[in-house]
## 1
Amino acid sequence: MLIDRAVVEVRSGNGGDGHISFLHDKNTEWGGPDGGNGGDGGSVYFLAKNNLNTLFPFRHSPLLSAEDGEKGMKKLMAGKRGDDLVVEVPTGTVVIDERDGHVLADLDEPGKKALVAKGGRGGRGNASYKSSRRRIPRIAQNGEKGERFRIILELKMIADVGLVGLPSAGKSTFLNLVSRANALTADYPFSTLSPNLGVTYLEDGNSFVVADLPGLIEGASQGKGLGTSFLRHAERTRVLVHLVAMDGMNDPVKAYKVIRKELEAYGGHLEERPEIVVASKMDIEGAAERKAEFDKELGVESFPLSSYERGGEVAILKKCEELLSKAPKFPLKGEEEKIRAYHPLEENLRLDDYVLLKEKGAYVVHGKKIEEDAARIQTKTEEGMMRLLSLLRKARLEEKLKAAGAKDGDEVRIGEVTFVYEE
C-alpha cells in the first residue's frame, strides 16, 4: 500500500544532570570536587533509503524518540551520551515542521541524512566549576531538555517525466509501452489508485524515470478525488507528458484545459514545466478527425499515440530527452526560499523577553529563554539558589512582580521551578 503522507512526533533526548560530590577516601583527607558532567541527549536524524517506497510504517508510530543522556557521577565520571535515533525513510521524502510549515529536510538523494531534532546538552558537574577563587563549589547544572514537536512527512516521488491527464487517458498503458512498469490496465474506464514508476532506456544509452500520476479530475487541486495526494508527486518532475484521449468519451479541448487549470491552481510551478501534448487512443474510429480539430483549437501539433499500432512512443521519448537536456530543476511547492538548516524555532532570545501572567492564584513566567536558563540551575544547594536569584535579577523579575501587584507569600512559577515571593 502506498502511503505518501504521515504526521509523527519527534523527541530528542534530554541531557543528563551534572553531579555534585566531593572526593572521600582513606588516603585523601581534604578531597576536592569530583562530580562528573551529564551526558548529552541523543538527536533524531532522518536518512533516505532507496529500498523503501512507502511511509506506511509511520502510520502507527506516533512518537519517534531518541535516548536521554545519563546523569554525571562521582569520581569525575561523566554520564553516558544518549544514543541517536536514525529514522529510515524512502528517497524523496520531505520533512516539514508542523509548527511553522518550514521544510526541515528534502531527502532527494539516497544516503542523504538530515538532523531534525537536536539532543539536549548534558549539565556540568561541580568539578567543572572549580577555580582558584572557588575551591569548593557546591553547584551543578541540570541537563538541557530535548526538543519535542510534530513533523509532517511527505513522499514526493523522484521522477524526470510525469504523465498527466484525465482518468482513462492511457497514462498507465503508455508507461507500460516505454518501460517494464507493468502498471494495471483494462479495456474499461477506471482510475489507477496509486502512482507508478518506470525507467525508460533509449537507443543512445540514456535513460530517465517516468511517473504515472493518476487520479486527476476537475477540482483535484482543492483535494477533490485523489487530487492533491498525487499532484505532489509531479513536483519533482521536469517535463510533463499530457495525454488527451481521442476516443470521443470526452471533449478533448475541455479535457486538456481541465488538467491545465488544476496544475496551475495547485502551485509549485507545475504549469511552468515543459509540456508534451499527446493525442492517445488514435486507433479508435474518428480519432484522426478529433485530433485535427484539437490541434487546430489549441494551436499545437500533438503527438499521436496508439497502444495497438505501436511506434508513436518513440517520437515522444525523443522529445522528452530533448526537453530534459534543457529543463531546470524546479523548487518544491512552498520551497522558493532556501530550506531551513537545523536551528531552534526561535533565535536570539533575550532573558527579559517573557510574559508574566496570574494563573490559578500563582504568578507564572512564560518565556523560552528564562524558562530554559532557570531549568538548568540546580536549586538543592545554597549556591544554586544564589545563582537562581542572580538570574532573576538580570531578568528584572522583581520589578515586574511589583508592577503586577504581587504580595508577600505569593507563589511564582518559571517552568518547573517554583518559589515564594518575598518583598
Note: The longest strand covers residues 148-155.
## 2
Amino acid sequence: MAQIKTGSRMRSQVCATEVMVIGAPAGEMEVTCGGAPMVDMSETPGDGLSIADGADQGTVLGKRYTNEAADLELLCTKPGDGSLGANGETLSLKEAKALPSSD
C-alpha cells in the first residue's frame, strides 16, 4: 500500500492504462489495474504480470472513476484493458451530474 496524493500519475503493470489522481483520501491505499498494483510513472512495470480474471472491463480515455465512498477519483489519461480498483473494490465510472432544467 502507498500514500496516494492528488495530482500524482500512475500506470498499470498489465496493460496500457494510465491515470491521474483527481482526489484521494488521507492514509494509505492500494490502487490496482487489472488486479495488479499500479506504479508511479517513473517506475518500470514488473515482468510476467497479466490481467486477472474478472478485472478486464477496461478503461475509457477522459473518464473519471471513483470508489463507493466517493473519496477517491481517478482520471483516465490513457485507456487500457484492465479494470481499476482500490483496496479490493472495483472502481465505477463516475456519471455526469444532471443540469437543472432551464425552462
Note: The chain has a mean pLDDT of 92.
